Amino acid sequence: MDPRDFEKGSRLLPNLGTSTNEIKEIVQGLNGPPFSYNLTLVSFDEKSPQELQELLIDIITKLNPKQKIDLSTDQSEIAQTVVEFLKVLGYTSNFDMEFQRGLLYGDKRILYPIFHYIISNLPLMQARAYLGKFLVTIHVPDEFLVEEDMKELYQTYKELMAQFQVTHQELEQVRQQALPPQELKRDIDQLELEKEQLVTKISKLKARYQGNEEFQQLLEATSKLRKEQEEEAMLVEKLQEQQQHLEWCEGNLMSAQQRLIDIKKVTASDTSAADMLNLLRVDVKRNREFCNERIGRELTEKIKRLEQVEQLLNEPIVSQKDLDGLQNDVRNLQREVQLLEEKANNAQNPAEDKLGVYKQQASLVSKKKEKAIEKLKSLEQEESKLEKKMMQKEKEYENVKGGNKFMSRDEFTKYSQSLRAKKTQYQQMKAQLRDIRADLAVLGRTEKILKGEAEEQIREMRNLEREHGIEGGFQYQEELEKISAAKQEIDIQKGATLDEIAKIVEELDYKIKENRARLSPLVTELRTARARFQELNAEYESKKAQYDTVNASVESDRAKIDEEVKQLLEETNAMESKYHLINGRIQLADAQLKRLLNEQACRNGERKLSSEYNSLQECYNIKQEQQTKLISDLRNKQKMIKETHDTNSRQVKLFSDLRRFLDLKIRVTEEENRGQGRALRGRDLGGEIGVGGVNRLVLND
Question: Locate the IFT81 calponin homology domain: which residues (predicted)?
C-alpha cells in the first residue's frame, strides 16, 4: 500500500471498505447535536461490537424516540426492527441473512456504512424517520379486504395518508416562505421603536392642541381622509387589475378572430401547400429574428445585473455581528435624536413654535418629492409602453417590407390594441377639432365685425382731426398710452421684485440667527468630541503598534508549530499505514493458522469437518477421485464416438440422400397427375411394378 494515499486522507481501512474521511465525518456527526457523544477517532475505533450495536440503537432512538428497542429481547427481533427502520430511511442493501448477522454481531463492515449514511444525511433522515410512521403502508392480505368493513377502513387509511402528504407539503412550503425568527425579532424591535416614537409625537400633539376646539374635528377629518385614500388606492388597484384582465380577454378574442379569418382565407382560396409552407417559413424567420433581438437585449440586461452582483460579492463580507452592531448604533442614534427633540420641544414655547413654518415647508417639499417620484414612475411606465409600441411599429414595418400579409397572434393583438387606442384618440381629437372650428368661425366673424367698426371709427377720428387742423394726434395719443401702460407694468414688477428680495433677505437673516443659536451648543460638543477622538486615535495607534508586534511574534511561533505538527502528522500517517499493513498480514496469518489447526483436529479425530467429510484432505481426495472417474468416462465416450464416427456419418448421408430422392419422386408424380389426369401408376426408377399403386424402393447390401 502506497503511503501517499494516507497523506491524502482518503485511504480505505483494511477489510472495512470505509475511508478515514468517512470515519472522521461519522465521529464529527456523533459529537454534534443531537447526539453529543464526545468521541475521538481512537475511542470510536476501540469500540467493541456490542458497543457499536448499542450505538446504532441509540442513533435510531435519537431519530425516532418512539422507536424504542430493548436489547434484552430476542436478537432476531432486534435485527428485524433495525432492518425495517433502515428501509424507512431509504438505506440501500440486500438485507439478507449475512447483513442481519453483521447487525447482531456488530460487524464494522456492516455498521460503518450505516453510520456514514445516517450522519451525512442527518436532516433528511430525521424527516424520513418522522414521516415513516405515517407513510409506511401497512400490508393487509387480500383475503381480509374481501369484507366491506375492512375494505372501507383500509380505503379511509389510504385517504388519510394522502391527506397527510398534502398537509406536510403545504407545511414545508410555509416554512420555506416564512422569515427566520431573528429577522422577525429585528423587525418587531424596529416596529416597537417606531411605535414609541409615534406615541410620543401623538402625546405631544395632544398636549399642544388640547385646548383647541377644532382639534377633534380636524382629527376626525384626517382619519376619514386616510381611510378614503386607502379605499381609493384599493379601488385604483382593482381597476388596474380589471383593465389588465379586460385587455387580456380582448387580446385573446382578437387573436382567435384573426386565426379564424386566416383559416377561412386558407380554406377558401386555392393556396397550395408550397405557398403555405413559404408563408410559415417567413413567419418562423420573423419570429426567430424577434426572439433573437429580445433574447439579446435580455442577455445584456442579465450581464449587467451579473456584473453588479459580482461587484457586490467582491466587496468585504459583512458578518451578522457587524449587522447587529450597525443596528445597535442606529437604535442609539434614534434614541439620541428623540431625546434631543424632546429637549428642544421642552425648551421652546408651544404657542410660539417658530419651526412650524419650516416644518410645514418640509412636509410640502416631501409631498412634492413623493409626487415627483410618482410622476417619475408614471413616466418610466409610459416610456416602457412607448418602447413596446416602437418595437411593435418596427415589427409592422418589417412585415410590410417583407411582403407578408399574415400576422401572428401576438402581433395582431398588439396591433388591434394600438388601433383601438388610436381610434379613441382620433374621435376625441375630431370632436375637439369640430368645437375649435365652430369657435373659430364665431371669433372670425366677430373679429371681422370689430375690425370694420374700428376702421370706421379711425376714419371718423382722422376726418375730425383734419377738420380741426390736428392731423395725427390720435396716433400719437395711442402710442403714449401704450408707453405709459408698459412703464406702469415695469414699475409694478420692480416693486414686487424689491418686496420679494427684502422678504427673502429677512427670512435668510432670521434663519441664520436661528441656526447659529441652535448650532452653537452642537459646535461646542463637536470640538469636545474631536479632542476626545484625537486622544482615542493616538491611544488606538499605540495599541495597534503593540498588537502588530505581538501578532508578528505569535504568527512566527505558530508557523513553526504548524510545520512541526505537519511533520508529526506525516510520521503518524506513515506509522498508521505500516500498522494497518502489518495488522492485515497478521489477520491473514491468523486465518491460515486457524484453518490449519482445524484441519489438524479433524485429522486427529477430535472433530469433523461436516456430516459427509471428516477433514479437508478427505473431502479433497474424494472430490479428486470423482473428477478422475468423470474424466475417464468422458475419455471412453470420446473414443467410442471417434470409432463410430465414419459409419454414422455414412448412414446420415444415406438417409439424407433417401429423403431428397423421395421428395423428388413425389414432385414428379404430382406433375404427371396434373398433366395426364389419370390414376396414379406405381412405377419406380428400377422398372418394377408397385403394389397397390405405391412406389417402392429396395435397398440391396
Answer: 22-138
